[in-house]
Amino acid sequence: MIPVQIIKRGVTLRPNRILTIPNIVTGFGILLVVVYILMYTTHTAEVLIPIIVIVIGLSDVLDGFLARALNQESELGTYIDPLRDRLMMLAIITNILWLASDINIALVVSILCAEGTVIVINAFAKYKFKLSVKVHLVGKIRALIHLASAWVFSVMLYWPNVWKNVEPTWPPVNINLLLSVMLTASILTTGVYLKRLISSLQ
């Protein structure tokens, strides 16, 4: 999830907390992203990929919930949580480019540019103005949209028989449509984050 809520200077996270339950959940999600990449690049147990994507999504939901519920928010968590999401986004894009055809490259480049902009703004806020950031609802929604798009894509590719049964009940879906949905989520998140950063500096 992309952090899009600026927290004023002086907010205390817990820099010494490393082996917390939320960080372990996030680390497990990062490990699963690596497994996902290995599965589609080596064509190993690909039938499990849609399940892996769901579990990664659950880790995205659980880590933030557990951090708040257990009062275990940490400085490390603010780094590895968005790291997991960006790695997953790159894994999705790579998977699509790796196996799908007739891809609109402009959509892929635009998604990467939008996400790159968020990274730059985030770094600027942290290291230039010493602002801490906190995950915002918009960032969570964006991450869930990316994961949902990844899951639909994985079902289309790795569970073709399931997709044949489901497809007639859905509106027309193709890879470029999924990329367009991902791009819209990324652009909206970038805009909200930029607006909040500018407001915090005024």
Describe the structure.
The structure is a single chain. The chain has 7 helices and 2 strands. The chain has 202 residues and is mainly alpha-helical. It has one domain: Up-down Bundle (Four Helix Bundle (Hemerythrin (Met), subunit A)). The protein has a two-stranded antiparallel ribbon. The chain is globular. The chain starts with a strand and ends with a helix. The N terminus is likely disordered.
Topology of helices and strands:
Layout: E1 3-7, H1 21-42, H2 49-69, H3 75-99, H4 105-129, E2 132-135, H5 137-158, H6 160-166, H7 175-201
Helix pairs in contact: 1-2, 1-3, 2-5, 3-5, 4-7, 5-6, 5-7
Q: Roughly what fraction of the amino acids lie in strands?
A: under 5%
Proportion of residues in helical segments: over 70%
Number of domains: 1
CATH-assigned fold name: Four Helix Bundle (Hemerythrin (Met), subunit A)
Q: Provide the succession of SSEs.
A: EHHHHEHHH
Catalogue the unreliable spans.
Answer: 1-13
Largest sheet: 2 strands, antiparallel
The number of strands is 2
* Text of the CATH class: Mainly Alpha
SS element count, helices: 7
As laid out across the biggest beta sheet, the strand order is: 1-2
| Rg, Å, rounded | 18 Å
- Which CATH architecture? Up-down Bundle
What spatial form do the alpha-carbon principal axes imply?
globular
Distance between the termini: 26 Å
- Structural class category: mainly alpha
